[in-house]
Amino acid sequence: MQHLNVVAFVGSLRHNSVNAATARAAAAAAPEGMEISIYPIDDIPFYNGDVEEAGVPVSVSALHETVGDADAVIYFTPEYNSSFPAVIKNIVDWLSRPPRSLDGTPLTAVATTLGGRAGAGVLEAFTSTYEHMSGDFPFFKPLGIGRYNDKLDEAGELIDPETLQELSDYLAAFAEFVRSN
Q1: 77 pairs with which residues across the strands?
Q2: Domain count, the chain
Q3: CATH of the domain at 9
Q4: pTM of whole model > 0.90?
Q5: Range of the domain at 103
Q6: Which residues contact 128 (CB under 8 A, 6 or more apart)?
Q7: Which of 19, 82, 109, 146 has the fewest other C-beta atoms within 10 Å?
Q8: Confidence of residue 134 (pLDDT cuts 50, 70, 90)
């Protein structure tokens, strides 16, 4: 079985981010042969053509190198105004620039939200963004986890057995998708 190196980006910089908790739960629930590593994005500057022209920042070069070495990418994202947060869009923007390290890399998104729509707006925006970008992005159907209040423990970690099973099943299906692409 092919070992899968998956890079995860969390779209919330908050210390007690629910999406970071979901990413940690995903790393723990990953199927055998899949390793999910959460990549810190708080030092990635916002995309600016002038900055890029003056010289790609070291943090962005490291981002491209990490993604280029990955077998897949998962975005764990909250929903802000029916779309994704600026920090996730920033990662998308930098990765769309040369050397375009994301091209050909299977990717997906998981949204954990307070509302019952389970991040439908952000997941639609995310899918639409990648469908309209030039490049090869094998995209696996995203997962939405809604109404998270009852699914967390006092420390803010995801503990709901049904949600953890859904996440585990989702990751197993994503692993199959990655291996077939």
Answers
A1: 111
A2: 1
A3: 3.40.50.360
A4: yes
A5: 4-180
A6: none
A7: 82
A8: low
